[in-house]
Design a protein that fits this description.
This protein is mainly α. The chain folds into 5 domains: about 150 residues, no CATH class; about 45 residues; about 30 residues, no CATH class; about 200 residues, no CATH class; about 70 residues. It is built from 27 helices and 7 strands. The relative contact order is 0.06.
Length: about 550
Amino acid sequence: MPRKASYSLATIQSLPAQTIYSSAEATHRQMLAAEAIVPSIDPNESYILSETLACIVGAQFAAAAGQVVAGRALRADLATLVLDLSARLSLDGSERRGGAATPEELAREIGVASKTLQRWRRSGLCAHWIMDGGKARVAIYRASLESFAANHRAEFDRACSFRRFDASERTRLLNDGRVLVEQGRSLNLAAKELALRYGRSHEGVRLLFLRELGVARRARRGVGEHAGRFAERAWRLGVEPARIAQRLGKSESLVRALVDRRRGELLRGVQPSWVELPTFDLPGADETIPSAPAVRRLQPLGLVDGDILAAIASARALRAEFPRDGRSAAERDETRAAAMHYMLRRASRAIDALPRWPERSRLDQIETDLRTALRLRSILIERGLVIAFGRADQYCHGGPERLPSDEIRALGRAIHTSVRDVVTDFNPARQRFDRAISLSADYALAKLVTARRSARAAARHASTIPLRLLDEVAQWQYTVDPLAHRSDRVVDEIEARGTHVADAKLLARRYGWCSYVPTTVEALADQERTTIALMTKRLRQAELWLRRA
């Protein structure tokens, strides 16, 4: 047998463990008793389990008192019990007339498939562990097979008389069938006539004709990639799965499965990179690292984004508020960097283990881990920009504002690139964050030949120079955070305490906006003491409000 059958009744499943200290004689006696009961069980009747177990082990079990079970399940579990008990005995196959053989050998002898013998085990055919050449193998006594054939004569004869169409017979049937169809007969009448001529079953010939003659050969159009892309994009735009199913002509459950499959495909394309740290394999790392205070408080520094001149000015103000003792700040940076790498590592390993049709809860957990890593990376990049702008103040005499507009933009882009590279590859076990940022910023500024250190008059340019530095912190950001560009509307709604403040707070907790930590749908439902289905509905309504705002 390919594998041992599983139990369906917990009481019988516990019997081998409860009788593990029985002697070999007692185990052999119990095995024979169970094997003798199997043929007498009617699969359509019900039996009192305690009475059956008393015939096998000679004792009453409290767990089985008053329990009534179906005969079909009892018969299958007793056959599995016989196999388990035989594993404790040193059987060699010569104990019974005709000996024993493996299921594959017996299948060839009687002319059936080995899967047929496996199916018969659920009907009461008992198998045993036999020692063959010093190795334990699953075998079936020929006497047991004869007894099973006598008790299931119709099923046994039908399986032995069954044979598939060979290549030549199949070709002859199809050729004769095409001739009869061309003469005007239907597929059913042609199958009936040829079944009588060749001595085959009418149904078998009819199914062959339906597969080969009844369906025109054309390209099969199943539920392919186009439908998955369409369903996932519509779902992200807030369209209900019922409407998507109506548009595609599919069931709603299939549409949800298509959306989940497409989400899994997008996540496989993320391929995040992280730095492996020795603390990740310590016991309890899965609870301690994500729950550190520095990770649970994701308060941004408040660097102005969107205008490079305002960003430089706000960076100066933020540096003035930095504590003189940078030890606590360094520890906070290291903790956040370690948590970021751990979240990316956990998400990447979960992505690698995703099946083709993934579970929705697994996808939600992966996306939540990636969002948490994004929030941590954004905070580290913001702090790195503040430090790097300080290096720019020292590099450019009189401040970067004295440079022309195009040079200021080039300086901002160079600093942003250097900071993002440091945050991506930062190893808190080997470096200090502020020193790594300063060194990288100095190297980036040194490559800007247009950034002159000599004193000169301030360049004339507009009062604002548009340049966004914190919009994109990872290439795969839009995959897991598609509504990030609308987060400002959520912040305004919460601060103004508008009519949709509840929806705004729910979205902030879900995606990690407004200093919240990203949360899974299951965790939100548990916090709100509601079901996952109702919480999903609330989130969809909140997202619809945000899109319409």
